[in-house]
Design brief:
There is one protein chain. The chain is α/β, with parallel strands linked by helices. The radius of gyration is 21 Å and the shape is globular.
């Protein structure tokens, strides 16, 4: 596991955040060229980026020859399309759930459908709205996973939800989806049992390869590996500028 850090140095070198999606596409290509087997993007792409060619077409009184040339070149300036092309077969973007009044973007297919019996008296963490990626991006990725942190009463994240219920369907977290693809597992199976009062989660079975125990609400007590930088961390600008060491590339 290697963390690509969008740190202060990256912002100083590459420009303020959020970066243009064409630059995110460059980052994805750079990771792929350095041998990344699987890429999880902890970034939400819920709103369309601005296409400068389209903006000029909408706002300027242009000669027909210029207008025709810009219309032909619109796709070349479309950074959403550039990122979509980069996603390929090994990149998983993210989305998040919230309890709000509206939703945006596109959800992936749920991996579990609650039965009529399971829909009532269910302990799974439930959220009523979401913010997902644009369809042009969601449809090109191999999958999507949610990123939701639920601090405890003291503001510390000790547990993370691996599954969340939205309406009557159940969705998987980014870490769970990445684990599934990393293992080459064809499916996820949620263990739900009725304890006599309500339906509670027991575990997640990842293609009969790994079984992850869950709390009743579908969360996992995080087995922290260590402090910050315990996992190998490289700064994003060094990936973009191709200045990784040979040892870092081997990871």
């Amino acid at each position: 596991i290697v963390i690509v850090d969008l740190d202060e140095d990256s912002i100083q070198q590459e420009g303020r955040w959020p970066w243009d999606r064409a630059k995110i596409a460059d980052l994805v290509y750079a990771l792929q060229n350095n041998g990344a087997g699987l890429i999880g993007l902890d970034i939400i792409f819920s709103e369309p980026s601005r296409n400068p060619a389209q903006q000029i077409l909408e706002q300027a009184d242009l000669p027909d020859s210029v207008r025709n040339a810009l219309e032909l070149e619109q796709d070349r300036f479309d950074s959403d399309l550039a990122l979509a092309k980069a996603l390929g077969a090994n990149t998983v973007p993210s989305y998040f759930f919230q309890n709000d009044t509206g939703s945006a973007g596109q959800l992936p297919f749920p991996f579990y459908q609650l039965s009529k019996e399971q829909q009532e008296h269910n302990r799974l963490l439930t959220m009523n709205s979401y913010t997902g990626s644009l369809p042009v991006l969601a449809n090109r990725a191999i999958g999507q996973g949610f990123v939701v942190a639920v601090p405890d009463l003291y503001g510390v994240v000790r547990r993370v939800p691996l599954v969340i219920r939205h309406e009557n369907e159940v969705y998987a977290s980014l870490s769970l989806v990445l684990a599934q693809f990393a293992l080459g597992a064809p499916w996820l199976k949620l263990g739900l049992v009725n304890n006599g009062h309500e339906w509670v989660a027991t575990d997640i079975n990842i293609g009969n390869q790994v079984q992850v125990p869950l709390s009743a609400d579908g969360s996992l007590l995080v087995p922290y590996k260590g402090y910050a930088k315990t996992c190998t961390t490289v700064t994003a600008t060094r990936v973009l500028q191709n200045t990784l060491t040979d040892k870092e590339r081997e990871l």
